[in-house]
Amino acid sequence: MSTDTTDLTRLATPPTFQSVSGARKAKNLTATVLVSLAFAIAVIPLVWVLYTVLQRGFPVILNADWWQKSLSGLLSRQTGGGVYHAIYGTLVQGLVCGVISVPIGLFVAVYLVEYGGRSRLSKATTFMVDILTGVPSIVAALFVYSLWITTFGFGRSGFAVSLALVLLMVPVIVRTTEEMLKIVPDELREASYALGIPKWKTIVKIVIPTALSGILTGVMLALARVMGETAPVLVLAAYAPYINYNLFDGPMASLPLLMTSERNNPTDAGFDRIWGAAITLVLIITLFNLLATVISRWLAPKTK
Amino acid sequence: MAKRIDVKDLNLFYGKFHAVQQVSLSVPPRNVTAFIGPSGCGKSTVLRSLNRMHEVAPGARVEGTVQLDGEDIYASTVDPVQVRRTIGMVFQRPNPFPTMSIRDNVVAGLKLAGVKNKKQLDEVAERSLRGANLWNEVKDRMDRPGGGLSGGQQQRLCIARAIAVQPDVLLMDEPCSALDPISTLAIEDLITELKKEYTIVIVTHNMQQAARVSDQTAFFNLLGVGQPGQLIEVDDTEKIFSNPTQKATEDYISGRFG
């Protein structure tokens, strides 16, 4: 309280509520500007990339041949043909990787959350998974190269690519599944135990179904991510402009590989192929992300 | 069906922490026993040890014996899964399985134990829901998710789920603490009804509830922070509430502490 007795307009007691102080208004303004600026900086390149890819690639993919034919027999300056061979390679390498990674990742996560507790093995596993998450894709590719090709003597192939992608995908799946299993309340496990349901059945029938939508979302996102990986395909598979259905033998194209190999092609046809492949890859990954959203909506526990 | 429980020299631990010390009491069949006492005195811990749920917590340990009709449920040859099938439990917060419909929630215990006969499951679902006084409210929406019911309905759904596997004993851990008075009344009526077939042990913070529903009351207390909880006395509910032997019981019941 002020001791100034000459101020007769002063209220006997000050009002409880005052207007927002100037300092706070200024701080609010600064924060708003900073946040909006950061948002703009993050979004502008994203929109730009999407715009460029769409503008240059969209006319190319409108041709039905693009989705049905390969580049087999075409000269580098010849337009026409398609990237069916590369789409096939990307999808098959990605799916085979998924088929191997999902069970491994799921089992590891179930061990960590339901059985490991604070045991030494569980701590060591978490640590290794953390490290694996940060391994650059080129390292994974070179590791598979030295093991699968140099040591075991297999040739470069689509399957070798899948193996490298497994190394990249497993830690991601372990992480997301672990998080999803952790948020399943213990009360559900206890409710199940109290009904005389054994632990393994509780996990299979109660815990995993409750977390399934989140787990599948994580799997789809991980799959979308590894399908765009470039280092493994560069190191582990030779490019082929024709369709190779054999995952285990011979050169096999994939979208990132097609793009890097067409970079040496200075003609307009090469330009079209690169941007076409870029937008095709973006579309495939978008499709997987959309699928993830749909699946998680469909499987999420409902209340109505 | 209903069986008696005899607890002898029960000591319960969480890791190094001695949670409950030297509990001995008997629960006769077709009888409701209430556990009362201040928070942290070990009532719920004792309750959870009666169907071997205590050991689910990491580091939890049990000493002493718990007998169900003379059979030690902690004998080394006994499968805890079978114990839990015989001694059912209802928890403080309603916890229906979120991925299952109302019907599947009720028959979850049987279905996951391998019963596939649809007709049999439907019959059990109806009988259990009638037993839990919920049938009339949900019979037209059996395929809707259990999570869509109100809190009180969910809790009765959980009771239906617990009695669907036809246990001999029903343990209830503060089943009404998350419910409004009307749902509480519905559950209390249900307990009185269920008493005809089941042995019931209920943990409650509500003294009036203990007085209303139970035949026998056990008062737990702890001497100080960090000390193990103890069973102070157990007797007929009427006697505990009118003329308890121990001063601590009288103080607690009359609201002078705790």
From TrEMBL, chain A:
It is found in: Cell membrane. It holds the Pfam family BPD_transp_1. Belongs to the binding-protein-dependent transport system permease family. CysTW subfamily. Its main location: membrane. This is Phosphate transport system permease protein PstA. The lineage of its organism: Bacteria, Bacillati, Actinomycetota, Actinomycetes, Pseudonocardiales. GO terms for cellular component: plasma membrane. Residues 87-296 form the ABC transmembrane type-1 domain.
From TrEMBL, chain B:
Signal peptide: none annotated. It is a peripheral membrane protein. GO terms for cellular component: plasma membrane. Part of the ABC transporter complex PstSACB involved in phosphate import. Responsible for energy coupling to the transport system. The keyword Transmembrane helix does not apply. It comes from the Bacteria. One of its GO terms (biological process) is phosphate ion transmembrane transport. It is found in: Cell inner membrane. This is Phosphate ABC transporter ATP-binding protein (PhoT family). GO terms for molecular function: ATP binding; ATP hydrolysis activity; phosphate transmembrane transporter activity. Keywords: ATP-binding, Cell membrane, Membrane, Nucleotide-binding, Phosphate transport, Translocase, Transport. Residues 5-247 form the ABC transporter domain. Its main location: membrane.
